[in-house]
Amino acid sequence: KLYSIVCSLIYNPVTLTDDTMLLRVAVIGAGAAGLVALRQLSASPQIFDPVGYEMTDNVSGTWVYTEMTGMDKHGLPIHSSMYKHLRTNLPKETMAFPDFPFPKDLPSFIHHTDVRKYLEDYATHFNLYQYIKFNTKVVKISPIKRDKEPLLWDVVTCGVLKGDSSRTSHQFDAVIVCNGHYSVPLIPELPGLADFEGMIMHSHNYRIPEVFKDKVVAILGAGSSGQDMALDIAPFAKHVYLLHNKERLVTVLPSNISQGPGIVSVLRNGLILKDGSEIQTNSLLFCTGYRYEFSFLGSNCRLNIANERVTPLYKHIIHTKYPTLSIIGLCKQICPFPQFHCQVLFVLAALAGKMVLPSQEEMEKDIEEDFRWRTEEEGMPPRYAHTMGTLQWDYNNELAKLAGFEPVPRVVESLYDYVHKHRVKNLPHYKKARFELKNNEEFLELIP
Ligand code: FAD
According to its UniProt record, which protein family does this protein belong to (predicted)? Predict the structure, then answer.
């Protein structure tokens, strides 16, 4: 071995220089986004040297169900927002990473334990565990500016296990933040809320429906969580009010679920709604979403969060002032795993120099144009800055085109759209359907 090292030094000094030229990349979090980042980084060992940091002791992030709420055994806030009976609201055929299908024998709408197992299998299949430092929380990230040299990142980590609270500083060429965005509850300010005498809960802490046995439950918010939880709770509750400011859902619903407009104010035992009506309730469940949380990014990272908008991120991903800092998974109302796959490949193309990013000024212009178009032309509220819905397919394709990778197969879009249309008409039963992908364009509906 020594002989070959000496030879390579004499005859091929570039070989050794190449090794030292590897880009050290820190990946924060080992949920779906962090795993796909590690999988793609490790696929180019001649370019990247990845290290993953995960504050819990396992992969899969939010899919690791726990009955606990509040703090975990190490005093960390519980990260997962899974509840006991959750089955996916997307069919597994659309959820999969393009290079790793779910097992064929599973139904289309699967239990959360199957998603966790899928992510663990993904990590095993692509040998990702070797890169991950578990029980290690990233507490601070700061840029280190160097004269005429590319910027470095200082990543400070802290052990979370008892007796291991040591802080360590590590240096990286790039950082990919994959910390998840469904952990810090967003609760609207409502007059009178502090005086409400009933039970108040956010969907982050919802685990089992039995806690609402015989209660009159008001759920605020009718996104996926609000709809699913209303159906989960209805068999136990006396009545469920599904309150929201969208158009009324036109679907069959159990007889003890009724819809109503949003809340104006909270009374001690009830609510005043936007249409002026008053309802009596003894439980209030907020399905009002989550806040973006990046407290570990120091103020010198120059990331702004205001009104659920994170700036300045080119294509919702790459920091325009520090293009070696990127965030995966910010966008809402998406098919997450395929989009994470696209976002990661986009970042890697930029880091590897396969894609040349526009100038900082051009990237910032692009961000503002996207925001202007959303808010002025499409009439979206400013807090919808990262909301995708039907925009996600063009967005994913644009990333693929810019970075030069295979786009997500079109069948993912057509099946996603098909399910979306049927779901809103038949909320209680749409998860009984079963699909199979025929090819990259078409799917079969095996059980309608
Ligand atoms: P997470 O899974 O949250 O992972 C983030 C990881 O980062 C965690 O492991 C966390 O411990 C770690 N971390 C955070 N901060 C730090 C730090 N400072 N240092 C170290 N580690 C850190 N998607 C679907 O495709 N289909 C569905 O049916 C579906 N249903 C959902 C239902 C619920 C209730 C929720 C909450 C989400 C659902 N999703 C669904 C969306 C889901 O969030 C995404 O699919 C995806 O799993 C998100 O992955 P992530 O890696 O971005 O975040």
Answer: Belongs to the FMO family.
The structure tokens listed for 199 are 């039970």
Residue among 179, 332, 423 whose CB has most ligand 1 atoms within 8 A, to mutate: 179
**DSSP per-residue string spanning 131-157:** GEETTEEEEEEEEEEETTEEEEEEEEE
Q: How far apart are CA 131 and CA 102, in angstroms?
A: 23
Q: Which helix (H) or strand (E) holds 392?
A: helix 392-403
For ligand 1, what atom is nearest to the CA of residue 296?
18
What is the per-residue DSSP string for 276-344?
A: S-EEE-SEEEE---B----TTB-GGG--EEETTEEETEETTTEESSSTTEEE----BSS-HHHHHHHHH
DSSP run (H or E) holding 30: none
Helix, strand, or coil (residue 85): coil
Residue for token digits 């071995």? 1
* Amino acid found at 30: A
C-alpha 396/C-alpha 392 separation (Å) is 6
- Whether the ω angle into residue 45 lies within 30 degrees of 0, i.e. cis, is no
Per-residue pLDDT reduced to its tens digit, 180-223: 999 999 999 999 999 999 999 999 999 999 999 999 999 999 99
Residue from 25, 20, 42 nearest 155 by CA: 25
4: confidence class by pLDDT, cuts 50, 70, 90: very low
Per-residue pLDDT tens digits for 15-55: 333 556 899 999 999 999 999 999 999 999 999 999 999 99
The two beta strands, 23-28 and 174-177, are: parallel
Asked whether 207 and 286 are in contact (CB, 8 A), the reply is no
CA atoms within 13 A on the CB side of 72: 16
- Asked if 84 and 137 touch (Cβ cutoff 8 Å), the reply is no
For residues 322-341, average pLDDT: 98
Token digits for 406?
Answer: 């295979």
Is residue 265 within 8 Å of 248, Cβ to Cβ? no
> Which residue, chain included where needed, has tokens 């038949």?
426
For residue range 241-263, list pLDDT tens digits in order: 999 999 999 998 999 999 999 99
Ligand 1: residues with CB < 6 A are: 28-34, 53-56, 61-63, 79, 81-82, 86, 88-90, 95, 137-138, 178-180, 182, 225, 296, 329, 336-337
- The maximal CA–CA distance of the chain, rounded, in angstroms, is 85
Please, which residues bridge with residue 219 across strands?
242, 285
